[in-house]
Amino acid sequence: MVVAAAFCSQGIFWGTYQSFGVFFKRLIAEFGWSRATTSSAASLCWLLTGFASIIAGTLSDRFGPRLVMTCCGFLFGLGYLLMSRLSCIWQLYLFYSLTIAIGMSAADVVPLSTITRWFVKKRGMMTGITKVGTGTGMMVIPLVASRLIISYGWRTSYAILGIGALIALISFAQLFKRNPAEVGQFADGEQKGDAGPFNPVEGGLSLQEAIHLRQFWTVCAAYLCVVFFVQTIMVHIVPHAEDIGISPAKAASVLSTIGGVSIAGRLVMGRVGDKIGHERAMAICFLPIAGALFWLQTAKDLWMLYLFAAVYGLGHGGFFALISPLIAQFFGTRSHGEIFGIVIAVGAIGGAIGPLLAGHIFDLTGSYRIPFLIAAGLSIVGLILTMSLRPPKRKRKANDPGSAA
User: Fold this and answer.
1) Could you give the CA distance from residue 116 to residue 112 in angstroms, rounded to a whole number?
2) Helices (H), 244-301
3) Distance (Å, rounded) from C-alpha 3 to C-alpha 270?
4) Rounded to an integer, what distance in angstroms lies between the CA atom of residue 265 and that of residue 208?
5) Phi/psi zone of residue 390: left (φ > 0), alpha (ψ -120 to 50 degrees), beta?
C-alpha cells in the first residue's frame, strides 16, 4: 500500500511538474517574455524546491510522511490553479516559482525516504517501482496537457491539472506510514524470526556525521551534474523540437517518450543496484546519457529525437531510482530525510542554473547547441565522480543491519 501510494504520488507530482515545457511557448506567445525570463521561473522553482526539500525531509523524519504530503499536495495543486489566472511576470514567480516549489518539495524526499524505511533487501527494486510512477506521469501528463491546451487553451488546462493534482495528492497522502514498526510489521514483509530481533529501519549516521565524509559531498556533486542536464532537457527539449519544425503535439511526445522509456531504466537499474551496489549502477547510467546528449547535437528529424529520448530515458530513469537507496546504503536511514534533502538541495543548484543558462544562451545565439554540449560535458564529470565513490568505512551498529559497513 505504501509503495502504491508513493507510485501514484510520484506520477502526479512529476508528470504535472515536467509539463512546463508544453506550456513554455504558450506563455511566451501570450505575454511576450523572453526564453531566459520564462526559463528563470522554472530555474527559481527548482532551486526553491531543492532547499525546501531539506525542511520537508526533516519534518517527515520528525512528524511522519502523511502530514507533510498532505500539506505539500494542497500547495502544489493550489499553485497550478493560480497559474490559470496568470496575468503578469511577478505572478509567474509567486504562483509557479514559490507556491508550486513548496508543494513540490515533498515529491521525492518524503515518499523515497519512506520506502527506504520499509525495505532493506529489496530497497532498490521497490524504489525503482516507486519511480516508475514518475516515468508514467512524465509519459502521460505532458500529452494530456498538450491535448487540453489544444482543446481548451492553456488557462483552463492549468486549472484542470491543479484541481486533479490537489484532490489526488491529498487522498494518496493518507496511505503513508513512516515505517513498518508503526503498524506492527517488519522491513521487506519479513516475520520477526526472519528479520532478527531488530526492525532495521532507523539505523545509520546523523546529518552532522554524514557531512564530514568525502562520500557525502561526492554524491552531492554528482547529483548536481545529473539535475543540471535533466532540468535543461526537461524544460527545453519541447521548445527545441518545435524550433526545428516539429508540431507541438509531436514535440510533447518526445518528452513523453523520455518518461515512458525511463520506466525501464527505473525498474532495471533499481534491481541492478541491489545486486552490484547502487554507486556502480549509477555510474552505468551516465553512459547512455552522455551518448544521447552528444547525439542530440546532430538530431534534426523527429525519428532522431525519438532515438535520443529512448537512449536518454534509460539513464534518466536509473538515476532517480538509485539516489535514495545509494544514500541509505552509504549513510543508513536514521536521518535519511535530512541527508536526502541536502543532496536534493545541492542538485537543485544545478537544476536552477541549467534551464536559465540554456534560455540565456539561446536568446544570445538562437541555438541550443552550446547548452546541450555543456550538459554532455557534465555527464562525463558526473561519471568520473560516481566512479570514485567507495562506501564509508565504519563499524556496523547492532541495530543498523540496513546500513553500510
Assistant:
1) 6
2) 248-276, 278-295
3) 14
4) 33
5) beta
d(CA 378, CA 372): 10
Instruction: Please give the helix or strand (H or E) that residue 92 lies within, else none.
Output: none
- Closest by CA position to 14, among listed 107, 106, 145, 115: 107
Nearest to 10 by CA among 114, 160, 156, 118: 114
- Which among 44, 273, 166, 49 is positioned nearest to 57, based on CA atoms? 49
Beta bridge partners of 204: 332
**CA 178 to chain CA centroid, nearest Å:** 21
Q: Are 154 and 38 in contact (CB under 8 A)?
A: no
**337, 57 Cβ separation under 8 angstroms:** yes
Q: What are the residue ranges of helices labelled H in 92-213?
A: 101-104, 109-118, 123-152, 154-173, 192-195, 207-210
User: How do residues 134-174 score in pLDDT, each as one tens digit?
Assistant: 878 888 898 899 899 999 999 999 999 999 999 999 999 99
Q: What's the pTM value of the predicted model, to 2 decimals?
A: 0.77
Q: Structural domains in the chain?
A: 2-180+201-387 (1.20.1250.20)
Write the pLDDT tens digit of every residue in 179-193: 787 777 777 766 554
Distance CA 116, CA 310 (A): 29
Q: Contact, 379 vs 286, CB < 8 A?
A: yes
Question: How many other C-beta atoms are found inside a 10 Å radius of the C-beta of residue 147?
Answer: 14
Dist CA 182 CA 63 (whole Å)? 12
Report residue 348 as a C-alpha cell: 537543485
d(CA 197, CA 208): 28
Backbone CA torsion sign across 239, 243, 244, 249:
positive
pLDDT digits (tens, 9 = 90+) for 261-303: 888 888 888 889 888 988 999 999 999 999 999 999 888 899 9
